[in-house]
Known about the structure:
mainly alpha
Amino acid sequence: MNQFLNVSSGFFSIIALAVVIVALIAWYFVNRASVKANAQIRLLEALLEEQKQQNTLLRRLTDRLVLEEEAVESTDENKDFIRLIPER
């Protein structure tokens, strides 16, 4: 019976060591994936900020173009109205 206990305790030590090694390998890959995900999140946040700035600039540009078009249209309307006055 003593021999059985000695063999079984050695067997359980080998299994425990294998479980620890597998757990460390799994932890390494999970940690590595987490670090990559964090880097991707930082990049996406930077892209979002740049996109917000681009949207703001685009909105300013389109607003300016609309105002210029309205100014041109109003001056054209004034010229047309002047042309409609009959000469004597």
